[in-house]
Structure formats: structure tokens, C-alpha cells
Design goal:
The structure holds two protein chains of two kinds.
Chain A lengths: L5 E5 L6 E2 L9 E8 L6 E7 L3 E3 L2 E2 L4 E8 L1 E3 L2 E3 L3 E5 L8 E3 L3 E7 L7 E2 L13 E4 L20 E8 L6 E7 L3 E3 L2 E3 L4 E8 L1 E3 L3 E3 L3 E5 L8 E3 L3 E7 L6 E3 L6 H15 L1 H8 L32
Antiparallel strand pairs in A: 1-22, 2-3, 3-4, 4-12, 5-11, 6-13, 7-10, 7-12, 8-9, 8-11, 10-14, 15-16, 16-24, 17-23, 18-25, 19-22, 19-24, 20-21, 20-23
Helix pairs in contact in A: 1-2
Chain B lengths: L11 H27 L1 H17 L2 E4 L2 E3 L19
Antiparallel strand pairs in B: 1-2
The chains are: A mainly beta, B mainly alpha.
């Protein structure tokens, strides 16, 4: 399987472990937040000890890194808290060091953590995708979605990574004090979040405090939502984030998935029909809110897959 | 090659690490499931409060747009086991 549903998980209750894999040197410690048991892709909170040093090199995996606390250097440049890096696979980064130590969120997206010492890019590296930005400075907060249905006022974000092919995103987000939203949400994508500071509440899982984390596969209910004193968090999705809102607390992931397909049929009928009717192997998804609404008419005779 | 990685041979070091992390995550997952099962009585109360609020203050249809839900629209709890971690 890929990554299981890890929600909620509070890393502050855990101890750091030494990362002793070859290539990373001494002074790197981690807490595993979530882990893909097939590929080794993972999200970790990492502590680099004072004086940590690593030579120039690359990873075979795409790497994302968010600097939570302290400072670190790549080459001659020192980076501060809130700095975000997207490092494509095979792109060689300059020597890395942290004189006073630091803590980061470190994400290996394609494989287990690995490091190859070299100052030359891999032949397959795409250096044009290398990106870094300080998310705390010089970026405006924005409303999370233009197209409805949208989150309530008081949820704002800064997009740090956007994949134009998959629409996957990495972002910083805040919930304002006294934020609330009375609906239940799920998405067609996996969603991940780490609370940098603050506590928020969801009806299924209770309070998620500072250091709280989740990796949530698609179609899993979350919400209603509330946040008393404000929260700042780092989040990611693995494809397009579309809000499916409803008020059935007991629907399960399979029913939510069916409902998504049914809603796509109504929201984007042309593309739905094109996809669904190729080879006449089309599904007839059920929407638990509209169980009798078949969605379209046709003139052929076949089994709609409903339970008899 | 996709955007996420370059094919490579995983060494013994990495294979052993993955095995260890797989076992650790399995434990972590089981603990989460138990903690969430233990939260059931509180969650039932939160759900009852939510279903009440959406019939009075309203349900967030889009952003801050609220729709008051009629009593006949309120879903009933199915008989199957209710879980929040999948």
C-alpha cells in the first residue's frame, strides 16, 4: 500500500531518532510523520545538530524542505525560518551546513531518503524546476479557492509549489482566531498538514495542536472545523484540491468517492461522458444524497450495477 | 522518469531502514485507530451538536453562505460500525 491514513499524529510526543543511512553524515535526527511503504517516500521532521555539515550532492527523489526553526546554509547563502525549497531529483545542491542547528520538515516525494555526493547534476535532472522562497516574508496571503465551494472567511494561504500537470500544491496556510466552518469536507486528493503553531479542531479527530500532523488519503470526511486562537500550518496535496462539502457525518470513503463521481457527472457532463462512455464501459456512480438520480438517459439495455 | 524521482538501485542500508519504518508505522497507525475509537463518546456529542447547529445557524454551502437544513434532510446513523480512520 501507499501511505496509510495517519490522523491525527502529534510529533511533540515522540523522540528524535538518529538517521544513520549512508551519505547523510553525523548529526541528523528525525521523527517519521508518514511513510510510503512501497516507494519509501516520506515526510519527516528533522533536526540538524549544531555544526552539521554535508558536502554538495543530489537525491534521486524530489525533495521539499521547509525551515521551521534556526538557520541553515547552502553554499554561502544563509536561510531563515519560513524558507521553502523545492529540489528536483538529480539536482546537485551546494554544501549544506547549520552552525547553530535547525529543524525542518523534510519530504522525499519519489523514494526513500538518499544522497549522492557530487557537484554535478544527474543526466535526468531538470534544474529549471529548482525553487526556493521565504514564505514568511514578501508573499501575500490569498483566499484558497476562486471557484466555489470555498472555505469560510479566515482561511488564507500562500502557494509555494504548484504542479501544472497534477495540480498538486504545497502551501502555507492560516486559520484566523475564532474561525469556524460548519460543513463536512472531503477531497479527491490526498492531503497533508503540519501545525507549525496553533491548535484547530475537527469534528472527527478532535484538537490538533502545535506539532500536530496528518496524512489523509482521498475521500475521508473531515470537519466541521473550528479554531479558537489561530493556527499557522504547512500543507500539501498530491493533485487538485476540490472541496466536496456535505453534512452526513457517517458517510464512508467509498460512498464519498461515488458521490464525487456523481458530482463530476453533473458539474462537468461533457468530459464525464467522454471518459465514461468510451468503449461503453461506463460507470453509474451513486450519490448518497440523490440515490434516485441516475444523471442521464440512454436508449440501451444493460445492468446499471445497482444492487438487486 | 516522472517529476518525483530518478530510478536507482536501493542499497541494503535503505532496504533495512524501510523495513524498520514500515513496522514502526504499522504500530503508529494501530495506536491512532485505538485513540480515535476511544474518542467515540465525545465525537457522538460533537456530531449531535453539529446536526443541531446546521438546523439553526446553518450549513456552510460556500464560504460564508449558510443554508438552514430542514429536519427531514438530517441523515440517520447507519447500523454499520462507524470509523473515522481508514
Amino acid at each position: 500500500m501507499a501511505r496509510p491514513h495517519i490522523e491525527p499524529f502529534v510529533e511533540r510526543n515522540e523522540d528524535f531518532k538518529k538517521l544513520s543511512m549512508s551519505g547523510f553524515g553525523k548529526g541528523m535526527h528525525y521523527k517519521m510523520l508518514s511513510f510510503d511503504t512501497d516507494t519509501g517516500a516520506c515526510t519527516m521532521k528533522v533536526r540538524f545538530d549544531s555544526g552539521y555539515k554535508r558536502p554538495p550532492g543530489f537525491s534521486y527523489s524530489e525533495v521539499e524542505m521547509f525551515l521551521l526553526k534556526g538557520t541553515l546554509k547552502y553554499g554561502d547563502t544563509t536561510y531563515q525560518e519560513g524558507h521553502y525549497f523545492l529540489i528536483p531529483p538529480g539536482v546537485s545542491m551546494p554544501a549544506m551546513s547549520s552552525s547553530r542547528g535547525c529543524e525542518v520538515l523534510l519530504m522525499y516525494n519519489g523514494s526513500e531518503p538518499n544522497f549522492v555526493e557530487t557537484d554535478v547534476d544527474h543526466d535526468y535532472a531538470d534544474r529549471s524546476r529548482l525553487a526556493e522562497v521565504n514564505s514568511y516574508q514578501g508573499m501575500p496571503w490569498m483566499a484558497p479557492a476562486v471557484n466555489p465551494p470555498r472555505t469560510a472567511t479566515g482561511c488564507l494561504l500562500k502557494i509555494l509549489k504548484y504542479d501544472e500537470r497534477t495540480h498538486a500544491m504545497s502551501f502555507l496556510y492560516i486559520l484566523s482566531p475564532e474561525f469556524w466552518q460548519d460543513n463536512i469536507s472531503y477531497h479527491d486528493c490526498a492531503e497533508e498538514s503540519y501545525h507549525i503553531w496553533g491548535s484547530s479542531w475537527m469534528m472527527q479527530f478532535g484538537d490538533l495542536p502545535t506539532g500536530g500532523y496528518f496524512w489523509r488519503p482521498p475521500y475521508i470526511n473531515h470537519g466541521a472545523f473550528a479554531c479558537k486562537r489561530g493556527t499557522i500550518a504547512f500543507g500539501r496535496t498530491d493533485s487538485e484540491l476540490f472541496n466536496h462539502f456535505h453534512f452526513n457525518p457517517w458517510s464512508n470513503a467509498k460512498e464519498n468517492e461515488e458521490r464525487s463521481a456523481s458530482r463530476l457527472m453533473h458539474r462537468n457532463p461533457e468530459i464525464y461522458n467522454w471518459i465514461a462512455q468510451r468503449g461503453h464501459n461506463h460507470p453509474h456512480p451513486q450519490d448518497f444524497e440523490y440515490p434516485d438520480d441516475h444523471g442521464h438517459s440512454h436508449d440501451h439495455d444493460h445492468d446499471h450495477g445497482k444492487k438487486k | 522518469m516522472d517529476n518525483l524521482g530518478i530510478p536507482h538501485v536501493r542499497n541494503a542500508d535503505a532496504r533495512a531502514w524501510m523495513k524498520k519504518e514500515t513496522a514502526a508505522q504499522k504500530k503508529r497507525y494501530q495506536l491512532i485507530v485505538k485513540e480515535q475509537d476511544d474518542l467515540s463518546p465525545k465525537r457522538d456529542k460533537w456530531i449531535a451538536d453539529f446536526l443541531q447547529r446546521i438546523q439553526t445557524r446553518g450549513f456552510n454551502v460556500d464560504a460564508d453562505m449558510l443554508r438552514v437544513i430542514k429536519p427531514e434532510e438530517i441523515p440517520t446513523k447507519p447500523k454499520r460500525k462507524f470509523k473515522v480512520v481508514f
